[in-house]
User: Fold this.
Amino acid sequence: MPVTLLGAAEIRALAAELDVTPTKKLGQNFVVDANTVRKIVTAAKVSSADRVVEIGPGLGSLTLAILETGATVVAVEIDHRLAARLPETARVHGVPENALTVLDADALRITELPGDPDVLVANLPYNVSVPVLLHFLEHFPSITRGVVMVQAEVGERLAAPPGSKIYGAPSVKAAWYGPWRLAGTVSRQVFWPVPGVDSVLVGFTRDSEPRGTETERVRTFALVDAAFGQRRKMLRQSLSPLLGGSAAAASAVLDAAGVEPTDRGEQLGVADFLAICRAAPPPDNLGL
Ligand code: SAM
Assistant:
């Protein structure tokens, strides 16, 4: 029996049956258009061999489109009513037993996933999209690629190169794991309720080798936060609390890393931040 997708009327009926009124707090904007969920799955190049993890499956529209490919899905949903109902929705729509595992959990706190998923696909809750993405990349190294839908500004920021106005701490931290790309735009009209912001798809591919050790990642992210926390300041000032306590000490580290002390954070790529981390004096460098 082939997997069938949810239609707009069925989505509303399901929500009414579960007494679910979409909340802003949980970023609940459900996709009610089959073409859009298929577009996301196509952009993610999901195939029957994939083990997909989905954050926030909601009523299941994207989940069913992923399952339609023959892939398996682990779905993490914080709303108990939605998590409890999803297996039944999947069964009614022809999903084979064992193809879907639903975890009733907060995606920001989860640290274990069954089955070592290799692909992340999600229409993310917009209020937590960056922290949840970084949390998954940090905790689940089996994820090698993904496509997620996010607020347009967030997607553009994630994919932004150094030097652009929107380049910021999320851009550098995301780049730690590998390259990001914009993968398409999505109309507001495909959501229920219609959100007040535009949405885009953004894709990533994890580098085959980690860029540095976990300790280096933590220290590099601390540098990134300090540099963008005072974005208008030169690095020798914004990083001085982490690099010796004075502009002179910070300049020496920056020189050793091959970075201009008068640069600002927005001019540096992730490799530059890592070079600063590695040039900082051991053993307890960066105060961490
Ligand atoms: N995937 C569905 C779709 O496309 O129609 C729903 C997407 S909706 C934008 C976001 C979903 O994430 C909601 O179902 C919401 O309950 C869930 N959610 C919000 N915060 C979450 C969290 N911290 N952990 C897991 N799920 C969360």
